Amino acid sequence: MLTINGSYGEGGGQLVRTAVGLSAVTGKPVTITNIRAARKKPGLAAQHIAAISAVAGTCSAGITGAKIGSRSLTFSPGEPEYQDLTVNVGTAGSIPLVIQAWLPLALCYGGRLRISGGTEVNRSPTIDYLDHVLAGILRAAGAQIIIEIVKRGYYPEGGGEVIIEVVKKNIPPIFPINANHLPVGIISCSSNLPDHVANRQASAAALAITSETGFPCTIEYDRRTGKSTGSSCTVYRGAKGGCANGRPGLPAEVVGENAAHSALAGFLNPADVDMHLSDQLLVPLALFGGEFTAPVLTSHADTVCWLLRQFGYTIAPRKGATVEFSYDAGA
User: Fold this and answer.
1) Please, are residues 118 and 54 in contact by the beta-carbon 8 Å criterion?
2) Which domains does the chain have, with CATH numbers?
3) Which residues are known catalytic residues?
4) Suppose 92 and one of 53, 65, 158, 235 were both cysteines; which one would form an S-S bond, judging by CB atoms 3.0 to 4.6 Å apart?
5) What sign results for the dihedral spanned by CA atoms 86, 21, 108, 235?
6) Is the peptide bond preceding residue 156 cis, with omega within 30 degrees of 0?
7) pLDDT tens-place string over residues 83-136
8) 13-26 vs 95-109: helix axis angle to the nearest 10?
9) Would you tell me the crossing angle of helices 13-26 and 299-310 to the nearest 10 degrees?
10) Gap between the Cα atoms of 195 and 307, Å rounded
C-alpha cells in the first residue's frame, strides 16, 4: 500500500485525481492523507468524489473515505475493464477535471462515460480545450476519443452534460504536433444570452490573434439555452491553447481577449505544448512514452512528476530555454 502526502507540492485536487488514476492503471493500492490541507476548504469536494467514482467504476475499486470534507482516502483497485458509466458531480464542478482522472485508464482499457456538471468553470480548462488540445495531441498519437457536448453548464447552476468514449488501442509514443499548417481555432460559446455575446467574444479573440501573429483564424459558435447562464471562449492551435469564461459585468470583448492572450503565451513560445497542457500530458507520457517540451516547469507539472515517481515512473524534467519531458515506456 502506497501512502501519498496529499499536501505535497501543488497539494490540491489534481494530486488526488492523478494518484487515483495511477493506482487504477498500476494496480497499486494507495492511501492519500492530508488531502487539500492548505486549501480554504480542505478535504474532498464533490468534483473530486465524482472523479474517484469514475475511476473506481472502471476497475471495481474498494474505497474508504470518499465523502465531502474527507482528508484521507484509501483506494484499492480491482481489475480494469471497459465500462459504460454515468457520473453526476451534483454541482457545477468541472467535467474536464473529472475526465482527466478517468482518461488514462480509458486509454488503456477503453470505456464510455456520461458525466453531468460544469463544462466551463473557473480554475479548470474548458471542455473545448480538453477536446481540441489534450485529446487532440492524444488523437494525433493514435488514440480514438469521441466527445459529445450534450449540454453546456456554467457556475453556479451547472447542468452541463458530456459523453466521452475511448476505444482501446495500442498507442505509440507521444510526440509533438506540427501545427505550422494549422489555423487558429476559436470556439465562442454562450447559454441564455443574446447572440451578439458570442460574436463579440470571437471577434475580439480573432483580432488579438491576427494582430500579434498574422495566423488565420476559424471561428465556431455554440449558442444554447439551458439550466445555467454563461459564456466562454477557447482559442487553440495544435498542442497549445487558452480559454476564458464570462461573468456578469465583464464585457464580451474582454473574455475573447483573455482567451487569446492565454493562448498567445503558448503560440509565441518555441516549446511544443503550452504551460497548462504539460502537467495534463505527463501521465499519458509515462504510460506510452514519448517526449515534449514546455515553456516552464509549473508547480502542477513538478507535483505530477513527483507523484509519478511514487508509482515507479521517473520523468526528470530537463531545464534549458524550454523544459523537456521524456519517457521510454518500453525501458
Assistant:
1) no
2) 2-176+272-327 (3.65.10.20), 184-267 (3.30.360.20)
3) 300
4) 158
5) positive
6) yes
7) 999 999 988 999 999 999 999 999 999 999 999 999 999 999 999 999 999 999
8) 10
9) 30
10) 45
